[in-house]
Amino acid sequence: MTTLVGKKAPVFRATAVKGSEIIQDFSLEQYLGKKYVVFFFYPMDFTFVCPTELHAFQEKKAEFEKRDVAVVGCSVDSEFSHFQWLQMDKKFGGIKGVEYPIVADFSKTISENYGVLASEFGYDDEGNAVSEGAPVSYRGLFLIDKEGVVRHITINDLPLGRNVDEALRMVDALRHFEQYGEVCPANWSEGKDAMKATNEGVAGYLSNH
To answer: What is the pTM of this model?
Structure first.
């Protein structure tokens, strides 16, 4: 399995829904040179864990915006499903009040290109892999820099909700590295000391051994 880290994020054009607005020909290319992007996938509309995640991203929307980050969601549902879910109140399991775009990947090609399409596979009589059931997206998250390069990925299995604060921490780490040239050690968070990446320590060790 290959990774997208360090590579350009796959380009797509699709329909998205933002609040009560349906956006045709939506693309992440609109953010190039302007914003970082947190592009996250979730399995399906009208489910259980998914609305908790979408509301959690909404609750931190101002924090992402302070950091020049556009938050964009995506699932394999249609734009019509997204629209209906966005009109449903939170107390009934809806996501009314979510303000960032949600992409409709009804063809499942975006999920496939980002490597997050979950499916059970069997084999036909000729030995070809055949999807069984209706594939949905794993809980994938991609941090994309302003040049359109993927810098961080997490992919959770379907039952495991993600930590939105961790996504913010990774944004902070990337911005710190870009601004100061310092690398961020384990458990680093904004305000803590980072590290200068040099070859001096390695050179000194090798000269003494």
So the answer is: 0.87
Q: Give 175's Cβ-side CA count (13 Å radius).
A: 17
Q: By the 8 A CB rule, do 86 and 98 touch?
A: yes
The CATH number of whichever domain residue 143 belongs to comes to 3.40.30.10
Q: How far apart are CA 16 and CA 77, in angstroms?
A: 11
**Does residue 182 lie in a domain region?**
no
Q: Which of 16, 37, 50, 136 is catalytic?
A: 50
Q: What is the pLDDT of residues 4-46, one digit of tens each?
A: 999 999 999 999 999 999 999 999 999 999 999 999 999 999 9
Question: Does 130 fall in a domain?
Answer: yes
The count of domains in the chain is 1
- Domain containing 85 equals 14-161
Residue 50 appears among annotated catalytic residues: yes
Nearest to 156 by CA among 143, 172, 170, 139: 139
